[in-house]
Amino acid sequence: GSLGLSLLPQRRQEERRRRRRAQQQELLLAVSLGKHPLQNRWALWFFKNDKSKMWQANLRLVTKFSTVEDFWALYSHIQLASKLTSGCDYSLFKDGIEPMWEDSQNKRGGRWLITLAKQQRHTELDRFWLETLMCLIGEMFDDYSDEVCGAVINIRAKGDKIAIWTREAENQEGVTHIGRIYKEHLGLSQKVVIGYQAHADTATKSGSLTKTKFVV
Fold first, then answer.
1. Mean pLDDT across the chain, nearest whole number?
2. Do residue 29 and residue 90 come from a single domain?
């Protein structure tokens, strides 16, 4: 048993090396095909709420991509968020990070949360989500893009939600910089306030309200 545990860091390192090699080969292929490589490789996940299954069984990886062209091919192929049924989510995360709080790269982090009114599903939702995806894959957050883990859109009957997840909730400078730029890209007015919640606070919330750590 203990030997298995001592091998874990080594296995993780090997896994990271293997992933890096695969990414390099993928980029070389992309460039040779005249495609435009992204700075990171991204994974799109889909969650469908089937009450008869465990949460993780409802989450599935759709595909991974690492070029601009492959992103647009994917985006034009999948259903728009506004057409999904209630209880469904899309998540876009950097390759190697799973879209759940428990992932080692998410657990100390949090999220900038955009809560939409019901009627915004037909007017703003798809634009906001596409803008969010562009912020991620285009690394729009200057020196703090490395802090970004991914983004999630929740389609819910009582109001849809979009969030950008970051790595370190205590990194106030990085988190607020990301929030400001995100708000700007969504075209939200100065009057609209968005809040950042630490995952740890969301996980241990009492009642339905999670305390907000930062606002922009």
1. 91
2. no
